[in-house]
Design goal:
The complex is a heterodimer.
Chain A (H helix, E strand, L loop, with lengths): L11 H16 L10 H13 L2 H33 L1 H14 L8 H8 L3 H25 L3 H9 L4 H38 L4 H11 L3 H30 L9
Chain B lengths: L12 E10 L2 E11 L4 E5 L6 H9 L6 E6 L2 E2 L7 E4 L3 H4 L6 H12 L3 H14 L15 H14 L4 E5 L7 H18 L2 E5 L3 H7 L2 E6 L4 E7 L15 H18 L1
Helix pairs in contact in B: 3-4, 3-5, 4-5, 7-8
The chains are: A mainly alpha, B alpha/beta.
């Protein structure tokens, strides 16, 4: 309905580059076993889409990403709210958080494999670990940024902790929390594909590896562009949602 | 005078030997003050005289460094639901993600009012401040005066015995301010509540109050108390023309000038 959310002028550069590459390849009678022509990539993508293999792989990757996000973002929200509200809790967690955060998710693949073996559980765990951080950090900041006046209103009404968190703190911090969630979504996709390429026989990453092993560079590129397209679509959907919710009167601050 | 009969009954709110200091710097010193039931007490003074600090003590938002704050004879240890606070910064005190009725509903939800009674009560409270037509609007869709009315409506829902008002009309234009002054007087007359009203507007203090307390800064202390001997109900056209009003305004103006030199 709201196609204005997407500016189609953004398509000029990528389409232009591909068209130029195609024309150049045809004019120079270009032959290569590693870098296919754009038309070959499009053909491979069409075949993979039509036989269902590409959509099947996409579903597997998205399922893992969604599962990991659900766990990681929920934990990030809970810990972030507690750490934002209670200085004591923040002090308790600070060293742990800051020393775990720099560990790359990929570096945890061997441990995850030992614990979970191959499959969804291992991938979801690593995605959860990745999406936990941005939600945690932005929730802490957003909760700390809640206007002190609102917290005073809650105090004056003698609201209990649960009511204060759900009726005042989280709604007030929601725009900030959502920014963390958007970052987490992006990271979740990256880690999902990475884990699939590195170890897990699932999803888009694994499909790419299989195409490479069967010497199908056209299919590798088709998957690569597809991953980019899926990521772009998800981000566009989130942006649209963000504008829908936080651009409304309910979240617009009066100047 | 309003407190002629007062000594017989104990003070509703009493400050006894209050000292407040932040980081060793004295903010309030030697405050002894009684507020009686039904009294409209206005507090004026230059900025930094601790008017708002005094209000926060009464609200239970701040404990004194020394001395006692008593409510109905008991020490105030925290906020109480029958004491309502109206802040000057109405847009920060309202929940922007809730409509006008949602903001009032917050009080009923917190008080545990049965769900089926809430809608009627919200409607009646909003009607009392003239917001019946705007129940479904969000604060960002309301003018400043309407937002302040909404904050007053939310306080009305608490059915408070005491109103603590911290320069509530300071950010509003003159016309809106006058109509809200009259609305507060009407609400107070209807409900017989007690009001502690902080303002920097001397005329507002005289117009509204039974008594005006003038404070001095560095450190904040009570400098003088002026009973306001003006008849009720007050009237925006005639009250300011009365000799007592003009006399008090002159006295208070000279007092404020005196604190600034």
């Amino acid at each position: 309905m709201r196609l204005r959310a997407i500016d189609w002028r953004g398509a000029v550069l990528p389409v232009g580059v591909l068209a130029t590459a195609e024309i150049a390849a045809r004019l120079t009678d270009y032959q290569s076993s590693s870098l296919p022509r754009p038309s070959e990539i499009v053909a491979a993508a069409a075949t993979a889409l039509l036989d269902g293999s590409m959509l099947h792989a996409t579903a597997q990757t998205l399922l893992s990403a969604l599962g990991g996000l659900a766990i990681g973002a929920s934990l990030g929200l809970i810990f972030g709210t507690l750490m934002g509200l209670f200085v004591i809790f923040n002090r308790l967690m600070e060293v742990t958080v800051e020393s775990l955060r720099p560990i790359p998710s990929v570096a945890l693949i061997p441990i995850a494999l030992l614990i979970f073996g191959l499959g969804y559980a291992m991938e979801i765990t690593l995605i959860a670990k990745t999406s936990f951080w941005p939600v945690l950090l932005l929730t802490i900041a957003a909760v700390r940024g809640v206007k002190p006046r609102l917290l005073e209103v809650a105090r004056l009404l003698r609201m209990g902790l649960i009511a204060r968190v759900f009726k005042i703190v989280i709604p007030a911090a929601l725009p900030g929390i959502f920014v963390g969630f958007r970052i987490a979504v992006g990271a979740a996709l990256v880690v999902a594909v990475t884990v699939e390429i590195a170890a897990n026989p699932l999803g888009l990453g694994y499909a790419m590896m299989r195409a490479q092993e069967s010497l199908r560079p056209d299919l590798v590129f088709a998957y690569l562009f597809w991953v980019g397209l899926v990521g772009w679509l998800i981000n566009a959907a989130l942006l649209w949602f963000q504008r829908r919710i936080f651009g409304t009167v309910a979240f617009r601050a009066r100047p | 005078m309003s407190e002629a009969a007062a000594p017989a009954e104990p003070a509703l709110i009493a400050f006894r030997g209050i000292e407040v200091a932040f980081g060793g710097k004295p903010i309030l010193t030697g405050i002894d003050l009684d507020m009686h039931k039904g009294e409209f007490l206005c507090v004026v003074g230059p900025s930094g005289c601790g008017k708002t600090t005094l209000l926060r003590l009464a609200a239970g938002l701040l404990p004194p460094s020394a001395g006692r704050v008593l409510y109905e004879g008991h020490d105030i240890v925290g906020p109480q639901r029958d004491v309502a606070v109206v802040f000057q910064d109405y847009s920060d005190a309202l929940l922007p993600w809730r409509t006008a009725s949602g903001n009032v509903s917050l009080v009923y939800e917190t008080l545990g009012t049965p769900r089926d009674e809430r809608a009627d009560r919200i409607a009646s409270v909003l009607a009392r401040v003239g917001l019946a037509e705007h129940a479904d609007k969000y604060p960002s869709q309301l003018s400043g005066g309407m937002q302040q009315r909404l904050q007053i409506a939310r306080c009305l829902a608490q059915e408070p015995k005491v109103w603590l008002m911290d320069e509530p009309f300071g950010a509003l234009d003159a016309i809106t301010r006058q109509s809200l002054q009259d609305e507060i007087l009407r609400i107070v007359a209807d409900t017989g509540t007690t009001v502690f009203f902080v303002t920097h507007d001397l005329e507002e203090a005289i117009y509204l109050g039974h008594r005006v307390i003038a404070m001095k800064p560095h450190p904040g202390r009570i400098a003088a108390t002026y009973p306001v001997d003006l008849p009720h109900p007050r009237d925006q056209r005639t009250t300011p023309e009365q000799p007592e009003f003009m006399h008090l305004r002159r006295v208070l103006l000279e007092f404020i000038r005196g604190t600034q030199t």
